[in-house]
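To the structural biology subgroup,

Please find below the input and predicted structure for Glycoside hydrolase family 127 protein, which we are adding to the shared reference set this quarter. The sequence is reproduced verbatim from the submission form. If anyone notices a discrepancy with their own records, reply to this email rather than editing the shared folder directly, so we keep one authoritative version.
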Amino acid sequence: MNNIKRVQLQPIPLKQVKISGGFWSKYAKLIKEVTIPYQWEVLNDRVPGVPLSHAIKNFRIAAGEMEGEFAGMVFQDSDVYKWLEAVSYSLAVYPDPELEKIADEVIDLIARAQQSDGYLNTYFIIKEPDKKWTNLRDSHELYCAGHLIEAAVAYYEATGKKKLLDVACRFADHIDSIFGPEPGKKRGYPGHEEIELALVKLYRVTGEEKYLRLSKYFIDERGEKPLYFEIEAKARGDEWDEQWASYFQVHLPVREQTSAEGHAVRAAYLYSGMVDVAVETGDESLIQACKKLWDNITTKRMYITGGIGSSSFGEAFTFDFDLPNDTVYAETCAAIGLVFFAHRMLQIDPDRRYADVMERALYNSVISGMSLDGKKYFYVNPLEVWPEACEKNKVKAHVKYTRQPWFKCACCPPNLARLLASLGKYIYSIRDNELYVHLYVDSEVQTKISENEVKVRQETEYPWDGRIVINILPERELDFTLALRIPGWCKDAKVSVNGEEIDISGIMDKGYAKIKRLWKPGDRIELLLSMTVMRVKANPNVREDEGRVAIQRGPVIYCLEEMDNGPNLNNIVLPKECKFEVKYEKDLLNGVCVIETEAEREDYGSWGEELYKVDVNVSYKPVRIKFIPYFAWANRAPGEMMVWVREK
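Predicted structure (tokenized):
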């Protein structure tokens, strides 16, 4: 259709990828066996001591099957849809008749709640039927519709069943009859972006071009004057404050936006939809806008953990280099949105900078959002915690030092479930006779290259070990290129094929070692990525991190916890020449590599009762400290935590 689409990589379908062992297999098992069943119980209000969801009950009321009032957030339907999407990905990899039966029953309920004209939103069906489509800014109608569409596509691809897909198409048809540039239609767009990327998914699975046109319309219209939100507010007798324009990403038309502004989750979903529409329509201007936005996020507005959105006010980006550690927001959903954006950019431009950020977010800010038992969650992902301040300082009240079993606003838990259940889609991509390996995961992929069946098997203990063995098993000898990402954090990489080391310096392309040869069944590649412990410094413009370092090994960011190092972590300083010792502790935090070193702790002697002193004599006492992976913090006794450590 166009140049962008012609050169685009194609992710390999989830059914063709099996995560067979290692780090991520624990998460795959956890999502299937614990998280999905637990969240199902929560959605049905059957877990004592957690905020009531009301989500399934709302659908029963909307379907006329029980009496009651709508309860929960205006976007409560989306929790069910994201849970169904997670179920779909799980079923694609791990068929489960009992789970599929439950999903079918939920789908039947959703279908019964849908109105005759295709409309489907339990809040408006139950509570305000006369106010549909009157407050796009705040109502989340299009956001919920997007999550319904994503669930429908995922379930169809996993099971071949079309009932939910038919529901989604009827709703999308209804939306298409309401919105657009044509006379008599509303020229609106969503307050919370999401439907843009969902409609492209629907177009790809149905081939119905009106869904692509509608997605493109929502993107093209955003930010055009007069702003629809202002028009809409006047019609409601409401006020529109121009200062909120950037919060909703309507301060400028999308092609003119050069910095990431406003609500971080909305922004990441919008940018993902922009990439999708650009690919399908050949719109290079959208791609250029996305690249500028990407650069702004990743070079000026992203935490070392891959978290984005530094302010609790508006859950938003603020300004370049404003990255506070103890009042940070870094919503789990925002990190997930960044993974979506990174993955899409990687397909149109196979550059490791996108894969590196995708990996950074996955191993740090994403999985820190869920406890190791799969049943408790962080909404906010701080880089520094002082529990007493979280409890008593209202500025830090949004920061929690223990994960919660659920939330009144529960967007993050099912979002985590759907991403982790679909992780297989993010490991590999294919284009013509090239197979790209983006993530190093103990896994097996079955695909076609030049119409020939090829199986590729990864064996690795990554991220704890930098050794990756890749076995090539084509059905016959086959000439193709295997592209291996050499992460940006890796300072020394060695590649050998069948025991013979090859020089990769001449075959590097945007961070990928591209090995082109005639592959034979049983060929074996060994990739060795050096995993030294690294001291990372922040740009000097990040004032909060001045004089501090973060510890990283491989893709994993590390932190100090009070449980290992005692209170007052801020008194610990790292000498510049200290030596790090890496240990794998199989019985700690489900098995992790920890990092230990000799550091120093400031000693102020007997301070007395004074609040302030002059001429203080500070001494330093040696102390052995232990770093644990950031993603695993807050899984033991509550206490302080710190990522950025003072350097002596």
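Summary notes: The radius of gyration is 25 Å. The longest helix spans residues 22-43.

Regards,
Lab coordination
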